[in-house]
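User: I'm putting together a small comparison set for a docking exercise, and I want a reference complex before I start. The sequence is below, and the ligand is zinc ion. Could you produce the 3D structure with the ligand included, as structure tokens?
Assistant: Of course. I'll restate your input first, then give the structure tokens for the complex.
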Amino acid sequence: MSAYEIAEKAINSTIDTMIRIIKGLPPVAQPEPKKGKWIFGFNNQYLEKYYYCSNCGCRKYTEDEPSDYFCPHCGADMWGGERE
Ligand SMILES: [Zn+2]
């Protein structure tokens, strides 16, 4: 086997290994936009109304449904682009 053949074989096996590594990787994930909703809640102990994020559960004490498009805590899209 000539030096050239040895080099060629080494290069080919390196390429094969690289291809296998690349194929073994999970496909590049598209970041799934987090979605949430403001869900009404009521604190019986303090008689307070609040809305909480369905995604992370953070609360916002307010009488009316929060107008926030995104949860200030987890960044979830609270309206899913439904609100104009
Ligand atoms: Zn949240």
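The pocket of zinc ion is lined by residues 36, 53, 55-56, 58, 71, 73-74, 76 (CB under 6 Å). Helices lie at 3-24.
User: Thanks, that's exactly what I needed.
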